[in-house]
Design brief:
The complex is a heterodimer of chains A (about 550) and B (about 525).
Chain A lengths: L7 H20 L4 E3 L3 H15 L15 H13 L2 H27 L2 H16 L16 H15 L11 H17 L3 H14 L6 H22 L2 H15 L5 H10 L1 H18 L2 H20 L7 H19 L7 H33 L4 E2 L8 E3 L10 H19 L8 E3 L6 H5 L25 H4 L5 E5 L5 H10 L1 H7 E6 L3 E6 L16 H4 L7
Parallel strand pairs in A: 1-3, 4-5
Antiparallel strand pairs in A: 2-3, 5-7, 6-7
Helix pairs in contact in A: 1-4, 1-5, 1-15, 2-3, 3-4, 4-5, 4-6, 4-7, 5-6, 5-14, 5-15, 6-7, 6-8, 6-14, 7-8, 7-9, 8-9, 8-13, 11-13, 12-13, 12-14, 12-15, 13-14, 14-15
Chain B lengths: L1 H7 L1 H17 L4 E3 L3 H15 L15 H13 L2 H27 L2 H16 L16 H15 L11 H19 L1 H13 L7 H22 L2 H15 L4 H10 L1 H17 L3 H20 L7 H19 L11 H29 L3 E2 L8 E3 L8 H19 L8 E3 L6 H5 L25 H4 L5 E5 L5 H15 E6 L3 E6 H5 L1 H5 L17
């Protein structure tokens, strides 16, 4: 608090150092430790494997998650060479890549005393391997795209303030930053990008910022066009998003929306307090709109997330409010009043607890990953992915995932005994860990993630002809990690399965169906079938 | 004019707020609950037992202090119906403690700190909700924890010396400290231990030593006086020891989890404490802050409470006040200390609002007579409501349905039953049907908390005076209890009625010679001239 960093350069240095430290903590152990949402992690690892095999999201497989949700871990995989490194190294790269944007956006708008806590807060939201709002011990990369969205939107919202030192190049950098942030959100989770675009439209009301906001609004579609030229999956993505939104896109119920405010009451109260102080002093409609926007958009976003607490935009809005108060005082010759100091402290009261919480969780992950704590997932290529149980964090959900890992061990052995080798496997459950975990050839046209009531339900689902277009083996779990998904999928696809497939192997946990028209090679049951001739087949289109 | 008066004299504002809280609680004359129906029944049963002349720990076992039963009993006695027992009892508590609030807060704290803290503690005390739960989780369950926190927090504020020492200051301080310590001791012992430890700690402070030592003496005298009437302190300690053998072990896991759950509070508290110590190091202050941080965590690890170490807020108030004082004396070279009250406000304001909304919600639902009544004749002013959070509503509905079924079974008996006990968490029938309660049994049986396979009272003692024993087929923790006491029941009782959810057992010797033994039941020293079964 007593740091007096006057020059923007030292602020930028701090942001870079902070980002570097976070990245180092994430990446250096090169392992993933998880205590929760193990099955969510497999979604991303499955995507990583597919891309590594040459597939392209939304062209070769269906997904309602943005392509960057797969390409970021792919970078981590390519750099580290292991699936254990995919998530942490991928996120470390993103943290480092975001640092210059954060340094510019926050450094140009906020005085160091506000800039530094907010930068630490946002960088840790991005870097921490937990679902925001959960306990320090709830280590998981599940829903990491939400954290990317929150951090990017948080940085963007600071641009509401006029720069501390208006300069010529500022506008160009602002437009570049805003464009980059919105594109990042657009290809990670689209709801954040919509909020970001709405914010830019709001900025058009401000005559001093209108030009760069308009430029960014033009640049975003241009960028999207450029992405489409390279990717070619935009239409497929929109189609998958529409499928998912038919299943789970309904607006939240009023009582859920009220419950969000009550669960986050402390943040909402402090935010209101500090915003009212600003509005009382500035009497600006634009600021009123802005504070309403921060609270309302954060509220809407969290209602769509699988997340209980942690409306990040409130912390950002409060930082902007504290900066406004400090500026309005600097304009007067009177000494700093207790209101300004109070606002700074109020801001710290909002940011510091979550910052420390996330720092502790990040440190915990780094430590556990370094000492190789926990049991590796029993699939040969997932040995750097560990399931841990923390003595202080209660038993749940550890036993369930131990059971899940046992079923994976059983399933891997069963796949090894399938005649003709295992390839192009679909699992009638939440996710397919086998393709990536055993290094199998992925099928085409299926999906990385099935979640009953979220991506699929009895009315909206991929037609069987599409999902099983290229599938050789269908694994039906007897013990499913997501029971309702497994039951639902079994019912939806029962006819197709009995028509085109037959049960080849049955174990304690799995029933493996093999596609019928496959060549008649079902003579012997040699357990160690050679995968070479299978993978030497030409890939079927793309 | 009035506003400025209230600002400069926080006592009046606090008394006014206490009056408002009490009115919100008591005026509707109804109890609304959305969760923990079974916990509520403990205190209704307790109020009933007291009203027919029983005495805690003498006539029934309990590890909770006697005030946990006498307060609802006072509410019952004042209002005349069980639906008002808890709201009125708590309103009474608020009003009784209000002058102590006013004295302690106004004598130690500047209005800027005294008012927010006063409102915060008043609402903690008054809100019918387990701390840390959602606004929709209305319940009087575990009200004793809230009394303990509020009393202990007030006591901790007395760490600060009085701002203007008048001639009556020592006397008032002694009286307040004694009263607060006695309230904690006779409400829940864990708070009492911490309160006594704090009074002993105050002996190291020269300026405060006088009232602290007289308070300790007065607490001792008070305890002796209570014992002269109650004559069950020994039995109470026995019950406490039994409960602590079952669930008293301190687990490191619980402490770490508790700390992590309160991280935000600890951070803000530490920010204020560090600020004060950084301005001027003082061993005494450091010890005091540690005292706020550690015993509070120990207490909360023994409570069934997701959030709320209220000693942190008390410690933060003291720190904020110390920062203000340092600033005024020109010691606070930085302007940061000027903002200390704001940090304190950040710590208490959200919870204050949360509790106020819950209290208002309870009052609103009570006035609107929301929800369904419990369904036993004397529980007609107690309602189970369903709010937006489903929670355990389904469970509660089923639980109430089974209770109604049990009540019908009892009403089907040829004689009016008495000395009825339930082999589950709590007995709703004595209070709900106005039956004469048994003696020697336990106010509640919570598996793993005050009864376990290793540590329990023998069936002969627990049910020695029980005539009808109701064994549920489904309940809170009936299965382990049935297993534990099954042999005794089969030996001493025989089933007389079977319903879908209950088996009603009648004591064997009672069936053989029932009129003869019935006369002996319950004629003990505690029963003499009680008000009887009048209401």
């Amino acid at each position: 608090m007593t740091l007096t960093l006057k020059r923007p350069r030292s602020v930028a240095t701090f942001v870079f150092a902070m980002a570097g430290l976070c990245a180092l903590l994430l990446a250096s152990p090169g392992e993933t430790v998880t205590t929760k949402y193990l099955n969510d992690l497999f979604i991303f690892l499955d995507g990583v494997h597919r891309i590594d095999q040459g597939q392209v999201p939304n062209r070769d497989f269906h997904t309602a998650l943005g392509p960057l949700v797969y390409y970021i871990p792919v970078l981590g995989y390519w750099l580290s060479g292991t699936f254990g490194g995919a998530m942490p190294v991928g996120m470390a790269i993103l943290v480092v890549a975001m640092a210059p944007i954060a340094a510019h956006a926050l450094g140009s708008r906020l005085r160091p005393m506000i800039c530094l806590p907010l930068a630490a807060f946002l960088l840790l939201v991005l870097a921490v391997p937990i679902n925001i709002g959960e306990s320090i011990g709830a280590l998981s990369f599940g829903m990491f795209y939400n954290r990317i969205g929150w951090a990017a939107l948080g940085i963007l919202l600071v641009l509401h303030l006029h720069p501390l030192r208006p300069g010529r190049s500022g506008g160009v950098l602002d437009a570049l930053c805003a464009t980059a942030l919105i594109l990042l959100m657009l290809y990670t989770k689209i709801s954040y990008a919509l909020v970001g675009l709405a914010f830019l439209v709001l900025l058009l009301l401000d005559s001093k910022q209108r030009r760069w906001a308009a430029a960014a609004l033009v640049a975003v579609p241009l960028g999207a066009y450029g992405v489409e030229l390279a990717w070619g999956g935009t239409l497929g993505h929109v189609e998958d998003l529409r499928l998912a939104s038919r299943v789970s896109g309904s607006l939240a119920q009023v009582n859920d929306l009220v419950a969000i405010v009550f669960r986050n009451l402390s943040d909402f109260v402090l935010y209101t307090l500090i915003a009212v102080l600003v509005l009382w002093r500035t009497r600006s409609i634009r600021h009123l709109l802005y504070f309403g926007f921060c609270a309302g958009s954060g509220w809407a976003l969290i209602s769509q997330n699988f997340q209980q607490t942690g409306v990040v935009t409130l912390g950002v809005g409060a930082a902007v409010a504290a900066e406004m108060l400090a500026r309005s005082h600097a304009a007067q010759p009177t000494p700093r009043s207790s209101v300004t100091t109070g606002a700074h402290l109020l801001l710290l009261a909002m940011l510091l607890p979550m910052t420390l919480h996330n720092a502790a969780a990040l440190g915990l992950h780094s430590t556990l990953a370094t000492v190789r704590h926990g049991d590796p997932v029993p699939l040969e290529r997932f040995e750097g992915v560990r399931l841990a149980r923390l003595w202080f964090d209660g038993p749940y959900p550890y036993p369930m995932f131990v059971r899940y890992m046992a079923s994976l061990r059983d399933g891997a052995a069963a796949l090894g005994s399938v005649d003709g080798g295992a390839e192009r496997v679909v699992v009638l459950d939440f996710v397919n860990p086998f393709t990536a975990g055993l290094g199998l050839k992925p099928p085409q046209g299926d999906s990385t993630w099935h979640h009953w009531g979220r991506t699929i339900n009895e009315e909206s689902f991929l037609p069987a002809e599409e999902l099983f277009r290229d599938v050789r083996l269908v694994m039906e779990p007897k013990w499913a990690v997501e029971e309702s998904t497994a039951t639902g999928m079994r019912q939806i696809y029962a006819d197709h399965l009995s028509d085109r497939y037959e049960v080849a192997v049955e174990t304690a946990d799995w029933r493996i169906h093999v596609s019928r028209p496959s060549p008649a090679e079902t003579v012997s049951r040699s357990p160690a079938s050679d995968p070479e001739p299978e993978s030497a087949r030409p890939a079927s289109g793309g | 004019m009035i506003a400025s008066r209230l600002r400069t004299h926080p006592s009046w504002a606090i008394l006014l707020a206490a009056l408002l809280c009490a009115a919100l609680l008591a005026a509707p004359g109804q109890t609304i609950t959305t969760v923990y129906v079974n916990d509520l029944l403990i205190f209704l049963d307790g109020a009933h037992r007291i009203s027919v002349g029983q005495v805690p720990n003498r006539d029934f076992h309990t590890a909770l202090g006697p005030l946990a039963f006498y307060l609802p009993a006072a509410g019952y006695w004042l209002s005349g119906n069980l639906g008002s027992a808890l709201p009125t009892g708590m309103a009474l508590t608020v009003l009784t403690l209000a002058p102590v609030f006013a004295h302690v807060l106004s004598s130690r704290l500047a209005p800027l700190v005294a008012l927010p803290l006063g409102l915060f503690l008043l609402l903690i005390l008054a809100v019918p909700m387990n701390l840390g739960e959602s606004i929709g989780s209305l319940s009087f369950a575990m009200f004793y924890n809230r009394i303990g926190w509020a009393a202990l927090a007030l006591l901790l504020i007395m760490y600060l010396p009085a701002r203007a020492a008048g001639p009556r200051q020592i006397g008032l301080d002694t009286a307040c400290a004694t009263f607060l310590a006695l309230v904690t001791i006779y409400t829940k012992a864990t708070y009492g231990v911490v309160a006594l430890a704090f009074l002993s700690l105050m002996l190291i402070e020269r300026r405060q030593r006088l009232w602290a030592i007289s308070a300790l003496a007065a607490v001792l005298a008070g305890a002796l006086l209570v014992e002269a009437f109650w004559q069950s302190s020994g039995a109470h300690i026995e019950d406490l020891l039994l409960a602590s053998r079952v669930s008293g072990a301190m687990q490191a896991e619980e402490l770490v989890l508790g700390f992590l759950r309160h991280l935000a509070d600890y951070v803000l508290f530490a920010a204020l404490a560090v600020l004060v110590l950084w301005q001027r190091w003082s061993w005494r202050h450091a010890i005091f802050f540690a005292f706020c941080a550690v015993p509070g965590l120990l207490i909360v690890s023994q409570n069934s409470q997701p959030w709320g170490i209220i000693t942190l807020q008390a410690g933060a108030a003291v720190a904020a006040q110390l920062a203000i004082d340092a600033n005024q004396r020109g010691l606070g070279r930085t302007s940061i200390s000027a903002g200390a009250p704001v940090v304190f406000l950040a710590l208490v304001l959200p919870t204050t609002l949360h509790c106020f909304l819950a209290l208002g919600l309870h009052a609103g639902l009570a006035v609107a007579r929301a929800g369904e009544t419990f369904g036993l004749p004397r529980f007609d002013q107690i309602r189970l409501a369903q709010l937006w959070t489903p929670g355990d509503h389904q469970f509660s509905t089923r639980y109430l349905a089974s209770i109604r079924e049990g009540a019908r079974a009892l009403e089907g008996l040829p004689e009016k039953p008495e000395a009825v006990a339930v082999l589950d968490f709590v007995n709703p029938f004595s209070a709900g049907l106005g039956l004469k309660p048994p003696r020697g049994d336990s106010a509640w049986l919570h598996w793993g908390r005050n009864v376990s396979t290793e540590h329990h009272l023998p069936g002969e003692e627990l049910f020695g005076n029980v005539r009808f024993l109701l064994e549920p087929r489904w309940g809170i923790n009936n299965l382990p209890l049935s297993e534990l006491y099954g042999p005794h029941i089969r030996q001493a009782y025989e089933p007389v009625i079977e319903t879908a959810s209950w088996t009603v057992h009648l004591r064997r010797d009672a069936t053989r010679a029932d009129q003869r033994t019935a006369g002996n039941l319950g004629a003990g020293p505690g029963l003499g001239h009680g008000s009887g079964n009048t209401r």
